[in-house]
Amino acid sequence: HYSYDKIRVDITEEIDLLNSVAEVLLEQLKEVEHDFIMYLDSEVNTNKCYEDNSKILANYLLKDDKKSSENINCNIVSFNYTEPWGEKLNFRDNNLHVNLLKNIHGTLKNKRIIFGIDDNMMDAKSEGYRFTKGSRIMEINTIEENKSTPIKVIFDRNINKVVFYGHSLSDADYGYFQLIFDEYKENESLIFEFCYTVFEGTTKENEIIKLREGISRIFGRYEKENDERKYTLKNLNLNNRIKFREI
Known about the structure:
By secondary structure, the chain is an alpha/beta fold. 45% of the residues lie in helices and 14% in strands.
């Protein structure tokens, strides 16, 4: 019952409507982000032990008993918004040094943070693509000059261990894991170390099971996307390049 012109007009109006709805939702998301900034500010300012506890945690994560007397240098990629460690932080142990730090999704200090979904979960032509982490990070960069450390500098080729801690290993951050695996999977001397803490209400066995499931899920997707990556996890396991450590 419609001519070609009528259908074209209706489709155009629908696209405009979807774009308008997406923009409204995006503005509401920014309000949530603003509220979360206020919440984090309050938590950090009222928790007097936060920085000290963060330094203690960093010591546990970075400390290698086999090299207790040697200097240990590290780069940190943080998925949090706070910066308790900071670059060139002086730990209680003078042998530990943070060279470079990057907060992936913005910082509380700059009052700019983002919530988003993984880029691979959304069609680039979709109205929803503006909610992806890649698009949201670009949004921050266009508002103010981005002076944070480039990720390619963080991923130093001389690194001999990549330590993961406190991450759910969910699909939401898959793109970042892909970058890490691409960079280091061929480095036969590098270890991927997954650390965990047994908190009240759980057990060591449960935490290890969760880690194993997360690792299998992430690497399963990684291998499935490219035939050249097949058997990556098997290769890492057979060469003892995946370790677990309780913090």
